[in-house]
Amino acid sequence: MQFIRSQFPALSGEWTYFDNAGGTQVAQQVGERIQDYLYHTNVQLGATYEISGMAAERISESQKTWAEVINAAHPSEVIFGPSTTVLLQNLSRSLGQLFEPGDEIIVTNFDHEANIGPWVNMEKSGMHIRVWELNKDTLLPDLDRLKHLMSRKTKLVAFSHVSNILGTIIPVKEITSIIHEHGALVCVDGVACAPHRMPDVSDLDVDFYVFSLYKVFGPHYSLLYGKQKHLEIMPGIGHFFIGEDEIPYKLQPGNVNFELTFGSPGIIDYFNSVYHHHFNGLNVNLRSKINEVYRMIADHEQILASRLLEFLKIKKNIRTIGETSAHKNIRVPTISFVVEGRKSSEIPLLVDPHKIGIRFGHFYAKRLIDYLGLAENDGVVRVSMVHYNTVEEVDRLIRVLYEVI
User: Is the pLDDT confidence value at 282 over 90?
Assistant: First the structure.
């Protein structure tokens, strides 16, 4: 942990960060790469002079790195953008032009609005929207209900890999297989998953997968994966003279942010440093290194989640919203709860003076909060941990919660 925390300048301060699902702290390697780009290759791409060529190569290398990390088939399947919300809005703008009035899109009522709103808005173009509801008793998605919702008119199903409220890991591969059997496309929001489990998009066989790099120890930037066969036929959303075969440029209006695109593989530089701190695998490929690091992350985060969840079980006036098991195959350490007789908005105010950052609200999963009848309670209190958090930090939070609740 001493080595891990030394890689994050922000962690040298007094604050304990337990609002990581809203945005993690940034690995030092990311900041160094951003500064390097701005100081040495801050020019427009496409010119004939040498520095412009160097800048273009840097952007290209970033795409190649991320393609390898998520196991995409081609670097051109990696699209960058300012946020997951924007990327999904752009995706719906393009993909929606291939759908026809009367076609059906299935969204959930348990996701972040980023992967609901853009598809619901397509109802204005004649698409029919069907809602896949969470099972209120189990707080799990009901696969039989999904099968019932699907028809020959279903064109796309949008859902998340992990709920940013419940912390539950959703069986994407199984669900994707069901959807593909019905001839529909899959769009997965991986924002709440990627800090804890790096996706293998080829293994999952998803058509589209998106996550926010600023929630994976990087800059305020996001990444969208799309299967090349889909991207090739999708209409561009940029200038009219950008060719339909210019992937991913035709889906990146205004082009990428150069310094953040180049800076984002600093996340991978960080993971590499973690790997080599623990192992002597010089000839191991990048994806295997990432898998090994994430295995260690999952093991450590299970310990953190177990500690907090055990406390929440003991406190009889606290109700955990979601799975109460800390097992790494079931959930990530994003843990939400409500306190009997108290507004969720009250709790963080009592914790703030102790220099511990937690949060309350609906976290843009407003439909889920309304569905669970928690809106009048000001939503939930959420504690979202990542691997740079320590057992000692969790224990300190528990002591504070024990005093104030």
Answer: no
